[in-house]
Amino acid sequence: MSYEVIEVERDGATIWATLNRPQALNALKPPQTFAEFSSVFDDIRRDRSVKALVITGSGDRAFCIGTDLDLLTEAYSTRNFAVFRDYLYSINNFMFALEELPVPTVAMVQGKARAGGFELILACDFVLMADEAKVGDVHTPFGHMPGAGATQRMARKVGIQRALEVILTGRWISAAEAVGMGLALQSAPRADLRRVTAQFVSAFEDKTRDSLAHTKRAVLRGWDLPLRDGVTHEIQSYLEYLATSEEPIERFWHNQAKRQDRKVQGAA
Questions:
Q1: In a domain, 225, yes or no
Q2: What ranges in the chain are assigned the alpha helix state H?
């Protein structure tokens, strides 16, 4: 597939997808943005050599400022709010597809992320930010409310009180504060962010694809279950992994052989 609103590159075991509309501050352009990402997601599901996905924005100003204003203009000028309904289902399908990918996903936030862009980072497994970047829901200052998962994912990530405070006030959050509240994993100077992110995702390269997928799924599906139910889900996930993948057996015997080699070399 040829891409127009995103740019896609492969670096080792990582796919880097860049929102590439800097003139529009990388606003999401439905349905094209979702269609192009859907193609990337299909490639990741098929290619088991991919171990991570990084999403970022083009330029220094913005990671993503949300939805293209053309959608709002159409909806308000015609009072056809079915436009919103269709968009909300489309963007949420996109968020769930991102969240359910069988590899770790990273939002590399080099500039401002607001509204739909903020909700996009919430759907990623990890958030790494430039020290200079800011993020925020920023719906309420414009008379809106979140519609792409912020009210649900934010509360699960940082707690109900903090989520309500951030969403209802519509304020911006610095990189340092985002790290402090657990919304972001770490931050780095913008000039170093690509290197830091590449170093972070390199930790997944030597991991087996199925172990990444099953472990991630167990965490995401169990995080709001009661503890006993969550542990039961983990057990079921582990048994399913053993029943459907050769990777744990192959990796076990590979590691056993390496240990034996080290013993032999030590004895020599």
A1: yes
A2: 32-46, 69-78, 82-99, 116-122, 150-158, 160-169, 175-180, 190-201, 209-222, 227-244, 247-267
